[in-house]
Task: structure prediction
Amino acid sequence: MDGRDKRGHDVGVIPISAHSALDVNFQEVVHSAQIVNADVATTKRFAEDRMDTHKNARLTPKGREEMVRAVVEKGLSKAEVARRYNTTPKTVAKWVDRFGNEGVDGLRDRSSRPFSSPSQTPQATCDVVAVLRRRRYTGKQIASELDISPATVSRILRRLGLNSLKALEPAEPVRRYEREHPGEIIHIDIKKLGRFNGVGHRMTGDRKGQSNSRGVGWEYLHLAIDDHSRVAYSELLPDEKRCSCLRFLFNALRFFRAHGVKVYRVMTDNGVSFRSFRYAKALRMLKIKHLRTKPYTPKTNGKAERFVQTALREWAYARAYLNSDQRAAELPVWLHRYNWHRPHGSLKSCTPISRLRLTEDNVLRLHI
Result:
């Protein structure tokens, strides 16, 4: 190597030997495996149990196999293989012995956990920690009660999966339901959408003039979806007042009646229009039971919420509309595709209209 100092003066040739003082001693990195305690059925996070290796690491399980086969099959000496793989002959001998005893499985990562831990906290103490934690004791309170270190309590709680208070109250399981026949429940909801008179920066990426559409106003997507078949009807109306809600209700009932569906129940949220006297009176006259969701619990009306997300993704924000009127004109086209041609995930990839079991004459009449 031609050596020069910072000023460019020749300082001679610096020989680099294979065993110079500048050599880097590579150290082997052995990954730890996941530990599952038989007494505590918890699984630690993967990111904490394993060490990341860079993409060019030599002694990964595959690299170990190549190194061992160079000794076993090619007849190279351990010292020569150690120089080739930048490790020590002792390490080569270790992997050769494991390969001879266990085969390829012996080259996998092993846990660094000792076989015995005499100083480990007794299981009885761990059980008492778990009991106190379920009584809502904090870590410091548990440590004071049992006269042990707060750090020890923290390790025990983490191993038990009780280090967070939310673990004491598991999330309520998702309750999915579906009515047996079409029309038993129709879910009704409203989504507020902003009007616009030009393509926005969400599509163009250009924020110049983005405030030009401010003050254009709002429009409201009223929607109704059948609980059993997922057949949906939707309209864009100028507001969400009582008159608009009643107008949409009557239009939706006509739509479902045209498809052979008799509506028995209507489920809405607790909006002002849905709680109005005239809305309740209209449903009573139609002999339709009115169901309202639990306050602040939109998952009760989950099918309508899911339809809103689908409509936004596949219709409202699916393409760059020149203005909101063009978007409104596209709604009936998308709605027809949703009901008649789009496979529905919760219906085993069947279309919603297929669940109404329409006769051939009705299919031809409604589809045209």
